[in-house]
Amino acid sequence: MKLIKTEDAVGTVLCHDLTQIIKGVTKDARFRKGHIVTEEDIPVLLSMGKEHLYIWEQTPHTLHENDAALRLQEICQNDNMTATPVKEGKIELNAECDGVFCVNSKALINVNAVENITIATRHGNTAVKKGDKLAGFRVIPLVVDESYLEQAEKAAGGTPLLALHPWQLKTAAVITTGSEVYHGRIKDTFTPVIIEKIAAYGVSVIFHEYSDDKTEQITACVQKARESGAQLILCTGGMSVDPDDRTPAAIISTGAHIVTYGSPVLPGAMLMLGYITPDGTPLPENTDTWNENLPTGTVPIIGLPGCVMYAKATVFDIVLPRVIANLRITKADIAALGEGGLCLGCKPCTYPHCGFGK
Questions:
Q1: pLDDT at position 58 over 80
Q2: Is 316 left (phi over 0), alpha (psi -120 to 50) or beta?
Q3: Distance between CA 215 and CA 238 in Å, rounded?
Q4: pTM for the predicted model, two decimal places
């Protein structure tokens, strides 16, 4: 860039957008990058407080902020995302469909550690709707050495930092456990809550059965649920350490690959999550599952603690978007929920617009 007096700029090419702010009227770029300054522009520029201008002088291995933003777009953008036109050196990504938004957190930290690079996203592993803003990015200076973009591209690891997975699972089975419900001593108030929560993601219940607190009976219900073709199996109640609570043992006896019994989330500590694979073998080990789909035919099975029935937001609400998007959840993913896993019980509850689960 070359700095010159505005009065001497006629015929030169602007190297960046110039924003005009008129209170209550506008805040937008009055002159765009590439604009050739005319005599008539000089009074307007001076009224904007621009007594000096940067004009474009291309030098080797440098990038204008707009061109740098386009390079960052290649680092970030993935399927099911749309990009805004570059404006004042910034590009934003928006959701092209409903789904769960995921972020390669480790890579994002590494990229943002590169000098002059800025990528901001919403929290990963959260549900979004079509049109929601996902991320924005830019470089800090108006002109940046290309080497910084090369460092950022290397830190990203060659694959997009972001992903948006549409909802995949469409059907579920619900097994309601508990002798008090099974024998009709109390009304079932748990199942309606589950039906409402999963319906928000377009999932319908195609199988529902009640079971006494007996391991063999619950296991048999799970088998029937599998035979129904349900893509997700949810077992409600009976998840505590009470001797009459047999649901965890029943889930284990199905041969499911158990990811966890317990989570560092309150409410929701007694969650059980497992996967029933088509051939009964455990899922292969993988330490980087931020964007991994489950193998075809694998059915998640979840034991839901009683808090899901009465608390507005629990661990179930945190993991459900990834489950419905058919993404794999590991023990490490569950362990990472501890930070932000404490619900503060705010009145009124504003979840998901709060720090719970983030």
A1: no
A2: alpha
A3: 10
A4: 0.86
